[in-house]
Fold this sequence. Notes:
By secondary structure, the protein is of the alpha/beta class. Helices cover 25% and strands 28% of the residues. It is built from seven helices and 14 strands. It has a five-stranded mixed beta barrel with strand order 7-12-10-8-13. The chain has a two-stranded antiparallel sheet with strand order 5-6. A hairpin with a 4-residue loop joins β13 (253-263) and β14 (268-269). α2 packs parallel to α6. The mean pLDDT is 93.
Amino acid sequence: MKRSELPLNPDGSIYHLAMRPDQAAPCCLLVGDPQRVELARPFFSQILHEGQHREFRWITGLYRGHLISVIGTGIGPDNTEITLLELEALHNIDLSRGIPFPTRKKLYFLRIGTSGLLQSRTPVGTVVFTDWAIGIDPLPFFYENFMDEALSTAFQDYWASRKRAKLPWYGVHSGPTFKALAEKVSWEGHFVRGGTYSAPGFYGPQGRSLVGKVRHSDIPALMAGFSYQGQTIQNIEMEAAALLGLAKSLGHEAAALCLGIAQREEGAFGYTNGGPSLEELMKRLLHLGLEWLCRVK
């Protein structure tokens, strides 16, 4: 493999994450916001490695005796792709020679993030487990075995029945290991399961019209109206579909747990009902994510 295909830093760490193979755990909590890494730090009994490069920030340590990495990836499918491919390389490619190892290691990725809620009766502060996601970013054009054909076709047909514009929607499922954990979840508060719409932007692609004309400003309602195998789309965020598709393509497993901090139909933002703060709920969700990663093997 040419060095330009898999660039390394002078210290031998991988280019964007600035991690070395001995610093990367096979179970990873992907938290989006790099500052959220610090919220997870107190749960570890020991931090073995940590680093920061560009927008990426990470720690690797021991939680209840299990080696886990927590990585702040930044926003969007492009950063998600960089993170997963570099973690794949750290575990399954001999970086010094650029040659894949003969035996591949399976990896587990769990996204912990925030999102906007779509269903009218779901209150702010609800946690959403993504059983499946709908995306529209171009990653399926570049990776094989990325999307679920039945789910993709079902959503494309739904969209075509309501809009003239033909768009490259795709659908993908969470990993079965994480779905099994969601079946037995213990959570004090509102917890729902269903679909997630992963938008390729925060404003127009999520139906926010600030300046000028935005196409498909009704997209929150359109997404809320789609159902698949008895489940509706519960929330909007920006990374889950890319994460699930890339994990599927690479032979790994992934899922997403997102805290709902906005209610799109009601127009609410932030948690105002007198319960725990959003920061406290996020800490609890990070703790849950770490507990799940302890159980994946």
